[in-house]
Amino acid sequence: MLSFKKSRANIATQEFAQLLPHEWAEAKRILPKQFTAKAGKLDYSYSPYLIEIVNNFAANSKITSTSILKGSQVGATQLVIETILGYTIDIAPTSILYLSESKIVAETDVSTRIDNMLYTTGIYDKIRPSAQFKHGKKTGNTKSVKEFAGGIIYAKGANEKPIAINAQILIFDELDKAKKHKFGDMVSLWKKRLSVYGKSKKELYSSTPQGDTGNRIYKEFLKGDQRYWFCECPSCKNEFSFSWSGNITKENGLIPDGVHNFKYTKNEQGAVIPESIGYACRNCGYLIKEEERYNVLLTGKWIATTTAKFRNSRSYYVPQFMSNFVSWEDICNEFIEAQNDRDRLKVFVNEVCAQVWEDRINQIDTKTTQLINAKSYAPLTIPNKLANDLGHGNIVMLTAGIDINKGSSGDETQGWAAITICGWTADNSCFVLAKGHIYGTIYNYGNVWKSLDEIINLDFYDENGVKYYINCVGVDSGYNPDKNVEAGKDGSVFDFVNKNNNARAIKGEDKISKKSLRFATGQTSEGLPLYLLDTTRYKTSLFNNLLISENADETQPPEFVNFPKAQEIGGLEYLNLNKKYKVAIKGNGFDESYYKTFNSEEPIFNKDKTEIILYKKINTRAPTHDLDALIYATAAKEFYASEILSVIKEKTYNLNLVLKYLEKFLAENGYSF
To answer: Could you list the residue range(s) of the whole structural domain that residue 622 is in?
Structure first.
């Protein structure tokens, strides 16, 4: 446990040259009101996790590289960067290269925050006064240069052309906010300015990850030894490290598992009840309250969870909820508000959790998804009680997706269909109700199609006897083997669509990707109606939704995807289709192999790395037919919504409006629309 009992009087009697940076700061620094809520004498007890970090820059420290992957408002600028600058000027003079996202920001930092620090510590007189030479160049004390005995501070914008200087210390503040350097990799370019100092150089990279491209600071973090602040639980004394979700271990660092560690309940307006907030100990379940955070943090220590790539390199993880300067109530409410806004959720992941949003895309842990998203409801049933318990309300729409495939025997009359049935709630959350593969004859409207006829015309009932039926079915027309234009045969796919009023033929089409909708209406070369899908955008949305975590009160945010826990039963087995139509039912159950389909493809980005343009299969052993069927069922929901909007003469596409309309209809009539 850290001790803060050492009096300032005792510190003041020591030779300043013997002080560590944090001791120097506590002895000399006064924080002004305009820059902090904790104005007055600097006290590291509010941010004990920053002591080791700033002391890496002591004159006798052997640490050469320090990286901070941090949330906002954790004190890094004031208690680390400003202290390093003041300590260096006062105690261990040398040359410093200070970089920020732009020249304007760097010079503003110098002329406001840094100048203020120099005044309040009483060391401003160590800065040489400004002087102007005949050719107009200023030196000594300017916005971009601070000269002092034995050293100099250069303040530069990270995207400026590197100047011909040498520096022993490099401070790169908010690395991820800097724009791409036209001269090459900005970190490599600026690091060259330290080369002459060899092993005595010191580097600091500090940043909150930004948007979906915030990987510079994350890469620097991975190069280091990946340290986490481990504290003692007040109840069981087990050591833990703060994380929004997932478990941080001393052996492996952060292990995502989808389980939220902050627990709270909400009031009737949906805001968090302050006194309910607590951080749950993974060992004993004790809820650590916000008023305990200060003392809990004082028990902490940094523990490295891996070996650094380079010797004497340290990296630190500092999320916002560790900071005593930010309330847990504000953080929890910010998370609640972000659930309906993906852009705000990105900000929450970056600024609060200190994590990179890009890492969430297509990084689905299949075991975690199965653990979190699999719920206790039977396949082929309508789990309205569960849907309400999870905070979604009743299911208001059913859809299905069908993927048609050729067989492997070489007999083109044989094949199979993958089908997935989904229920949708008014907040656009999904309950997968059934799935399976039907093997048999696909030519001339064979037994596979007859089985599908029965399935998509089934009646469904919830626990209270409320009746549902499948509103819309999307069937892939990409494989339509018995189509014969010369003979006037549209093929079994379109025969199926023409026979069933709720069926729609679909086809993947990349050309609509620039439109606001993910689908468009079209037709075949023969004039048959067709829905065109941007499957890339549907997949991206599904993969993101599979990464949504449950709320701390064990309800679920909107757009959550649920699956039955049944690992051996997919639901089609209950229909006796094998006896009725002589088909084979396979691909049953929501087991581990089913979830692997969600990790079978990787995204391919455009040249600017700003947009996913397609998905490429990477796991040939994980079939994508169930994934495709789920995508088609999702698209069918949107087809049906567009058709309802047309009926009610609503010109603007609005899925939420339709879902609320269906919810109202269900409540008033006791059966689905």
So the answer is: 366-664
